[in-house]
Write a structure and sequence with these properties.
Length: about 100
């Protein structure tokens, strides 16, 4: 089973693919993990600006998800997991 995980709760757009291993001691393995940081954008303002964060998630989400799937070598996934909270509402909506 391949699970695509998406995280957009605040100012980092991230995705990962985890795969079941069939091993009871270690049932999951991370196949790929990609993070797009917004640190440079928010540094100028001295903190996170919610509107800027959500707009940057919109710009980054497709590339991050495409890259994580390519890096993991999977063409399909069996489930999707997303952050639903807590977080910035605009940012969370992008991930959902």
């Amino acid at each position: 089973m391949n699970v695509l995980g998406i995280e957009t709760s605040c100012d980092e757009t991230a995705a990962a693919v985890v795969r079941t291993t069939g091993e009871p001691a270690r049932p999951w393995r991370v196949e790929s993990n990609v993070i797009a940081s917004q640190t440079d954008i928010h540094r100028e303002w001295g903190g996170i600006v919610p509107e800027l964060a959500s707009r940057q998630h919109v710009r980054d989400i497709c590339d991050v998800v495409e890259r994580v799937l390519t890096d993991a070598g999977v063409a399909a996934y069996d489930a999707i997991a997303v952050t639903q909270g807590p977080g910035l509402v605009g940012s969370l909506l992008v991930g959902l």
